[in-house]
Amino acid sequence: MSPRPGFVLEVDRSTPPTLFWHGERFRLERLPEGSRVIYAPEPLEPLADPSVAIREALDSPLGGQEPLRTLLRPGMRLTIAFDDVSLPLPPMERPDIRQLVIEEVLDLAADAGVDDVELIVALALHRRMTEPELRHALGDRIYDAFAPNGLLSQHDAEDPDALVHLGCTDQGEDVEINRRAAESDLLVYVNINLVTMDGGHKSVATGLASYRSLRHHHNPETMRQSRSFMDQHRSELHSSNWRMGKLIAESGVNVFQIETTLNNDTFPSPFGFLQKREWEWGVRDRLGFLAASKVLDRTPAGTARQVFHRVRAPHRMTSVQAGEVEAVHARTTENVWRQQGVTVEGQTDILTMGLPYISPYNVNSILNPILVACLGLGYLFNLYRGRPLVREGGVLIMSHPTAWEFDPVHHPSYIDFFEEVLSQSTDPTVVAERFEASFATDPWYIHLYRTGHAYHGVHPFYMWYWCAHALDHLGAVIVVGGDPAAVHRLGFRAASTLTDALEMATDVVGRDPSLTHLHTPPLLMADVQ
Amino acid sequence: MKALVVERNVPRFAAARLASAFGSGRGAGIGPLRLLDATPPPVPGEGWHHLRPLLSGICGSDLATLDGRSSRSFEDIVSFPFVPGHEVVGVLDDGGTDRAGRALAPGTRVVIEPVLGCVPRHIMPPCAACGSGHTGLCANVAFGRLAPGLQTGFCADTGGGWSTAGLVAHASQIHPVPPSFTDEDAVMVEPTACAVHAALAGQVAPGDVVAVIGAGALGLLTVSALGHLVRPGTRCTVVVGARHPHQRRTAEQLGADSVVDPDHLARAVRRSVGSLVLGGRLTGGADVVFDCVGSAESLSQALALVRPHGRVVMVGMPAKVDVDLAPLWQREVALVGAYAYGIEQSPAPGGAERRTFDLALELVEQAGLGRLVSATYPLDRYEEALAHAGAAGRRGAVRVAFDLRHPKGRTR
Fold first, then answer.
1. Phi and psi torsions of A355, nearest 5°
2. Residue B270 contacts A where some CB pair is shorter than 8 Å
3. Nearest residue, CB atoms, A419 vs list B260, B275, B276
4. Hey, where are the domains in chain B?
5. Out of 3.90.1150.10, 3.90.180.10, 3.90.226.10, 3.40.50.1010, which CATH number does the structure's domain B2-190+367-403 have?
6. A442 to chain B: which residues are within 8 Å by CB?
7. Do A438 and B260 touch (CB under 8 A)?
8. Residue B267 touches partner A, C-beta closer than 8 Å
9. Checking DSSP bridges between strand A515-518 and strand A348-356, what pairing results, if any?
10. Confidence (pLDDT) at B410
């Protein structure tokens, strides 16, 4: 039986309560009659043999690119860059897609007699990966062959010796990327395209760039003009990256792009109820939900967090494309849409969503209040094509504990951003103008980014900029079950229950508003007609 | 007439010290303080005048004394029994003269500069400190015509502000209160003078980052002094650690650039100066740190916050503390005290010397500091008053005072 497409349910009297993620916990909420619930399509059938599919993609590249084996020759300098720990979410069961793809590329390189091969984690301004995380992504064989010999590095956006300025785009945007990647005879970039935003020219132009380069598209104005980030053709973020990508190509950097897509089989069997529609829960699902809820309700948040971060997703590969960047990305985008697209008729007054424990920037860490905002307003709000799910001036209701809690190792500058910046302004433009430079150039943050496992000092600003479009668009943001102090610091309103939140929302959208619930994860993309 | 009197009673001091483990001011009922019938103290000599108190504040040094926690180094410069209360606004019912020799009509409201230096002690010639105007550093506070006592409120001969029987003040201690001042404004002049003296002792230079530890009355007044007196001529950044919401709000209103939780102060200072961190200590740090608490913890924090060759000003009254001074030695930090007041070099460029009290009078009016008086109590509710003062921060207060204006007293 083929997987069922996405579905929009209209809630009636017989509809059971709807599952909301609430950080490391769940809530069952009864939505008002007439509300809509958007469910993701069921997981697509995975590729029968990913390794065969990868080899075929490397031999039959898209966009007029030569097969990879013909691009490899003895004496050449080959660099393989790959996505970092922010993808996929949750981290997938072994073997990770990156391992499968890179093993095939390395086999071809070995066959061609290529000796000078280096691997680079495309960190951009993210934290450095730990050894266990690298072993998980690459497999022990690759890790042990490269890391001890210094041939596996993590991109350092603050090492002037390891960067090269390739020039400026016709819009005056600096393009400064990793020197090893730029000066290689061939740069192979291995992507995991969890959402349509990932990949394309963004892979190299962002993943291997410096702050000097990134600041041109990671800013409030660009973010406001990206409607949405998931729709490349209406995203200024992508336009800027595409301009940079063209300049990178014109500079002689030869990029061989590999993009992969996953099905949305996101949680393993103990959490199988998360993948299902509530009215279809069987006895096993109900028992699973009850057991998980009871245990989690009695478990300290920190312990529950550790349990969830050990979850490995049973994601399976649904497609692999290789070759010229733009041709590859166009095919990848189609494949992501095939898995995640759901057609939705019209906008809503109130959009509700339950936020899980994880976002791209807190793998093995805490979803701090800034990341809560980014996950809701930056990511889930932007999971649309056409128009936002919620109308302009509407209300977004998010469910998350939003504890005033930060990971001092991964997110040191977030702590100061929350205390020093958001206490003075939540306007992304004001925040950027008054504070960004001092955080971006702070020598302590730079030291921690380069030598520890800290996100770059400017990273919390970028998280806040991701929210800029939603902040402009929405009439109010209400967080259900959040720490009131932390929620207020974000500039949002706190409600104890969904009922209270809906009552508060009527102040903004009036009586009898329409309501739509975004039932994620698993991820979906709304094509709003 | 009544007065609160502190007697030399070792068991009662010990009991107060034990009780203070449950909170400052909690031992008032069993400590050395007693409410007694009183008569006005006799005038000790020429130039002295009777003063009827209106409001008298409860200072941290009063609480430390009553808790039995103050340093034993004060033992020889106080005399028992004494009536506490050195933050006083009162009325000269019989008139008098002020420190400039001007006649003051009966009913004039005045504040007193409580230091008992050489002039009120009738010691001539005065010591070098008094001779140069730095009366707070007087070498003769245990000598002359008066019993030992570094200030009014710690001297057996002068009485103190916590009394409806009144006290005596020497003309050299008397400052008339401007008519525009409320009694609350006036009672804040003395602690404001302490803060002015401390702020100027910081020797803040243009561009400095200044950290203030503690946002009780003294901390907030120091912030105000920095904001209104120092910063107009010396652009600096003032970062304050404040635990309670009302302290944060007030610090911001009084001119702090940044107010953070005390646990976050090191992070905020680090952000302001852009230094690195090593072993929990900043490699750089604030140019000047004002310790407005005076505990071992606050002094240790100050030493962790200050930069090499920086300056730590002890504003809060310390006692015996156990602190690792290795950072002070290795980083060549200057640790200076800031006690009381005297004469100051005006912070304005090319400014003349001014009495600290004169600067304080201006600052109180300019910053509206009377609003920091959060609650008042009649004398007979002194146990409640002291408990309130001892828990001022937690209870949303800044300064608690005795209200002596009404025979039956009132609170607010």
1. -95, 130
2. yes
3. B260
4. 2-190+367-403, 203-337
5. 3.90.180.10
6. 271, 274
7. no
8. yes
9. parallel
10. 43
CATH class, domain B203-337, is: alpha beta
Interchain contact B331–A (C-beta under 8 A): no
CA distances for B196 relative to A87, A238, B133, B190, B230, angstroms: 57, 57, 15, 10, 9
Q: How confident is the model at residue B26 (pLDDT cuts 50, 70, 90)?
A: confident
Which H helix or E strand runs over A504?
A: helix A498-509
**What global pTM score does this model have?**
0.87
Which pLDDT tens digit goes with each residue over B306-364? 999 999 999 999 888 999 999 999 999 999 999 999 999 877 767 789 999 999 999 99
Contact list, B267 vs chain A (CB under 8 Å): 415-416, 419
pLDDT band at B279 (very low <50, low <70, confident <90, very high): confident
Q: Out of A419, A420, A443, name the one closest to residue B276 (CB).
A: A443
Residue appearing with tokens 């990134």: A214
In one-letter notation, the amino acid at residue A407 is: D
Q: Note which residues in 196-255 of chain B have CB less than 8 A from chain A.
A: none
Structural domains in chain A plus CATH codes: 7-43+341-528 (3.90.226.30), 50-262 (3.40.50.11440)
10-residue block means of pLDDT along chain A (529 residues)?
91 96 96 97 97 98 98 98 97 97 98 98 98 98 98 98 98 98 98 97 98 98 95 96 98 98 93 92 94 93 95 96 98 97 98 98 98 98 97 98 97 95 96 97 97 98 98 98 98 98 98 96 93
Contact flag B274-A443 (C-beta cutoff 8 Å): yes
Query: How far is A243 from A255, CA to CA, in rounded Å?
Result: 15
- Lookup: tokens for A211: 């702050």
Judging contacts by C-beta atoms under 8 Å, the chain A residues touching residue B274 are 438, 442-444
- Is A420–B260 a contact, with Cβ atoms under 8 angstroms apart? yes
